[in-house]
Amino acid sequence: MGSVGAGRTQGSRGLPWLVVGLWAVLLAVAAPFAAKLADVQHDRATDYLPASADSTRAAKLQDRLPGGETTELVLVYHRATGLTAADRTTAARQLSRVAHRHTLTAGTPHGIPSADGTTLMYPVTSNEPGTDEKKRNALVDDVRQVAHDQGGLSVQVGGPAALATDASGVYASLGGPLLYTTVAVVALLLVLIYRSPLLWLVPLVVAGLSDFLARAAAYGLNQAFGTTVSGQSAGIMTILVFGAGTDYALLLVSRYREELRRHERPYDAMRAALRGCGPAVLASSGTVAAGLLCLLAADLSSSRGMGPLGTVGVLCALAAMLTLLPALLVLLGRRVFWPLVPAHGSTPRARRSLFAAMGSSAGRRPLTVLAVGAALLGALALGTLNLPGAIKQLDTFVHRPESVTAMETVARAYPERSAQPIGIMTPAGRADATLAVVEGTRGVADAREGRTGGGWTEITVTASAPPQSAAETATIEALRHRLPGSHVGGPSAQQLDLKDTGARDRLVVVPIVLVSVLLILVVLLRSLVAPLLLVAAVVAVWGAALGLGGLAFGPLFGFPGTDPGLGLLSFVFLVALGVDYGIFLMHRMREESVRGAEPAAAALIALRTTGGVIASAGLVLAATFAVLTNMGLVPLVELGFVIAVGVLLDTFLVRTYLVTSASVALGHRVWWPGRLSRPAPDADRTPEPVGA
């Protein structure tokens, strides 16, 4: 027996070191690939749109014309009191320098004066950068350096390329500030939760390493399958790694602390903890991954790419929290919990739990609590009626950059024309006929024939209405209707296609997510009623969170519109992550029911034992998504706000009160048609008092 015990002791010491060593090797192999993820990140509108979109086809055809993709800028010279002769000389000199430093498609551009004499607009086009975003950004930055304010003369650089450069600057900032802010927020919350000077650091370091591994895996997906990587999807992957990973760590550490009181050796306590909470963590992460993978059914490339990247992030976090974190905790021993070290054989100090009190109120009047909670969620969901319409491209920045102010100046000075071109690609043999149709279309201020190549001709159209206005949208739709066989593109057409494709994706992806999550829950919980209860709860949370967005976006934040993808992405994340917490609660409830507890007692025991962990996890996850509200793009702020408030609603209202009260009210029927739906024949069993 002594040799067997010695072998077990040796194994308990060697296995954690082996796991740490394997992770060190894995991270060393992943390092070169993780650093390359930024190189394959693209944030052009055509990278977000499906290949079948009309504007995407137009852009692809334009790329094949002589000179390739065109970079379009607008230099705006403005003086409120009217331009002087010296102002015009300054403008001509600066434009000449731009033409000297860069290859422009039409040489030195000619200025277009406004009717009131306050503004001079120079359209500038170049094929120099092609499709290289870094070269485009460098061109825009250099033009801005050359064209600068002088003596009260305002000089602004706008146009599609300048807008794209400013947007890419915001996305580039996600890599650093987003990561640092997320780490700081998670660290602060872990310190408050664990009340230990050391323990908080362990899951945080493990989460950081899993994010590093996820970046390498995301790069591998891009190289192997062409998965779209955008600034948005890469940033949200980091949020998921830290949010979901910390959630799994909280559940594991909580169970490990319990087991340390029952087992003398940390190795044995960790084995028991993994056996106890491992199935729930695996099931919850699998549900999140399945929900995210449903985004593969989306047409929008950005949404479709976010599915695999989010899944990779969750799975890397899962692998780290179930292997590396346990190994580190075992090696550090009990002292990692200092000063609140759980001694072997001790019992936790008895105290009145907040969640026991909540459970008592839910257990006494479950139907009343359920009705009030449902009414509250329904009232909040009415706020969706106040959601603003689709956001315009110029309104996507929280802080208005130079490109936006330039376009606003143009809109005021040239009310009779748009400074954002509409690009039409038509078969070369029909170019003259197409030009005639375009010129005869209502809302077209100007049209001219451009490059020809590969059997296609480019026609550049100037609308008479401002970009993304109802009148310009009507013009684009009229051109598409009147020009079969041609393709209508440009920034406004791309935004229109984004909106239409987003509406299609909601109709397709939402039912797939609901069915997938429901089937997983049915298999996991061996019931039909409990899964339906959880799914109904998370859908109600989604509606209420969007409603809160409707009450906040316009009145509080001043946002004039919402991102077309907000509904779909917030739905997928809230359903997947909300069910995640439901699994923690229901899994423990089922455990207690299997042990013989009556349904009401099982529900309240589950709430009392998991409520603190779920609350801590919910706070961490909500805080990580709330980090997005500090980013510079309105779509990210809106998405972060809706998911953060949705997670808080789910954590402190739905899980605590509604799911618990519904389970108490349903009794054994919550497990129908499974074995637990039939009361046990043991009539002598005394159930634990409700609210204990």
Explain how this protein is built.
With 692 residues, the protein is an alpha+beta fold. It has 20 helices and eight strands. The longest helix has 35 residues, at 160-194. Residues 1-7 and 683-692 have low confidence and may be disordered.
Quaternary class: single chain
Number of helices: 20
Strand content: 5-15%
Order of helices and strands: HHHEHEEHEHHHHHHHHEHEEHEHHHHH
Compact summary:
With 692 residues, this protein is of the alpha+beta class. It has helices spanning 2-34, 45-48, 54-63, 85-101, 133-146, 160-194, 201-225, 231-260, 266-293, 301-332, 354-364, 366-381, 402-413, 431-439, 470-482, 491-525, 529-552, 566-594, 599-626, 634-666; strands spanning 71-78, 112-113, 119-126, 154-158, 422-427, 444-453, 456-463, 487-489.
Key structural traits:
disordered C terminus; 692 residues; four-stranded antiparallel sheet; 20 helices; alpha+beta; elongated; disordered N terminus; 8 strands
List the SSEs and their pairings.
Layout: H1 2-34, H2 45-48, H3 54-63, E1 71-78, H4 85-101, E2 112-113, E3 119-126, H5 133-146, E4 154-158, H6 160-194, H7 201-225, H8 231-260, H9 266-293, H10 301-332, H11 354-364, H12 366-381, H13 402-413, E5 422-427, H14 431-439, E6 444-453, E7 456-463, H15 470-482, E8 487-489, H16 491-525, H17 529-552, H18 566-594, H19 599-626, H20 634-666
Antiparallel strand pairs: 1-3, 1-4, 2-3, 5-7, 5-8, 6-7
Helix pairs in contact: 1-7, 1-10, 5-6, 6-8, 6-19, 7-8, 7-10, 8-9, 8-10, 8-19, 9-10, 9-16, 9-18, 11-12, 11-19, 11-20, 12-17, 12-20, 16-17, 16-18, 17-18, 17-20, 18-19, 18-20, 19-20
